[in-house]
Design a protein that fits this description.
The chain is an alpha+beta fold. It is built from 13 helices and 7 strands. The strands form 2 sheets. Strands 2-1-7-6-5 form a 5-stranded antiparallel sheet. Strands 3-4 form a two-stranded antiparallel sheet. Bound molecules: 6-diazenyl-5-OXO-L-norleucine.
């Protein structure tokens, strides 16, 4: 039972809430042994597989932080949600939906197979690599710096500071990019690349290499949970239609070929990345029983040991546990 929930001014955490989350993080930290850090991008293999942390920020200012919450990590595929939002804002939703479909693939995040096998070569969704590279190709501008400027501007508006680019990760990403280059060439061949291939790939490698923290992910999740509005002051960060579409895609495609299971067992729109981050958005729900965060929250999870689908293994299990305990599912 929740007593005396904090407000934005105090930002306080209820002690009992903290105790629960600390216990759950300690328990699920053992599950990091069931996964492995990503190694196909060499620098990501340097992450500590035992790390696990979570930040939850609620609509009313209540927040909880537990575990390894201070470690910065790169957005990786979580950037696909951000660039999709920015591309929708820059080019319009219908233009984007002409360029990329909204169907789950059931294939690995970097699969090229469906591009070859489907009669229409349109990438299946904006969150697998093919669709994300198409989305990045629609960002206006000639250079990667110009294309990323509105991405950084949106992040700065939401986070209150301008995040940095992790140059080491970017270079490592770039040096191990044969598959993404192959996907890029294939998209060029079938007419689903909207601009210069090299500038697009450079932009893609950089967007994946933007540094964030768990608080940042929770804050972005909170804005999405509120259909694009900052609950603190009512300011619109992105159009409602774009926020809602992004959440639909997070639920159906955000965890790759584990999206169905995640929707079934967790039931929260979420987007993962191979650095081990998960961004989750819990909209306000109507519930008989009062539980923490019934009025909505944003969640950031970090756990670099990944399961076989490329999602944080302990992070996913921790989210499932919390969603079950506090009835966070949107269904
Ligand atoms: O395209 C890549 O390989 C990475 N930079 C991003 C992939 C990623 O995060 C997939 N997520 N699980």
């Amino acid at each position: 039972m929740v007593q005396g929930i904090a407000n934005w001014n105090t930002g306080e955490t209820q002690e009992w809430l903290q105790q629960y989350v600390d216990d759950w993080v300690a328990f699920y930290r053992k599950h990091t042994n069931d996964g492995n850090v990503a190694s196909y991008i060499p620098i990501l293999a340097e992450a500590d597989p035992d790390d696990l942390g979570i930040t939850i920020i609620g609509n009313n200012g209540l927040s909880v932080r537990s575990g390894d919450t201070e470690i910065p990590f790169t957005l990786q595929s979580i950037s696909k949600a951000i660039t999709f939002i920015v591309a929708c804002m820059e080019r319009g939703v219908s233009y984007m939906l002409d360029n990329v479909d909204v169907e789950p693939t059931g294939e690995a995040f970097n699969s090229i197979m469906h591009l070859e096998m489907k009669p229409v070569k349109k990438p299946l969704n904006p969150f697998n690599n093919a669709g994300a590279i198409t989305v990045t190709s629609t960002l206006p501008g000639d250079t990667s710096e110009e294309r990323l400027e509105p991405v950084f501007q949106l992040l700065e508006k939401i986070l209150g500071y301008r995040p940095s680019l992790n140059v080491d990760v970017y270079e490592s990403e770039r040096e191990s990019s044969n598959r993404n280059r192959a996907i890029g060439y294939y998209l060029l061949e079938v007419g689903f690349l909207d601009s210069d291939l090299n500038a697009t790939l450079e932009t893609y490698f950089k967007q994946c290499s933007i540094n964030v923290t768990l608080d940042d992910l929770a804050r972005i999740g909170l804005i999405l949970a509120n259909d694009g509005m900052d609950p603190k002051n009512g300011e619109e960060m992105m159009p409602r239609q774009v926020a809602r579409l992004t959440k639909v895609l997070m639920l159906t495609c955000g965890m790759y070929d584990a999206s169905g299971k995640f929707a079934t067992y967790v039931g929260i729109p979420a987007k993962s990345g191979v650095s081990g981050g998960i961004l989750a958005a819990v909209p306000p729900r109507v519930r008989d029983e009062t539980m923490p965060f019934t009025d909505g929250c944003g969640i950031g999870v970090y756990g670099p040991a990944l399961g076989d689908k490329g999602n944080s293994i302990a992070g996913t299990r921790l989210l499932r546990h919390i969603a079950t305990q506090w009835d966070l599912s949107i269904f």
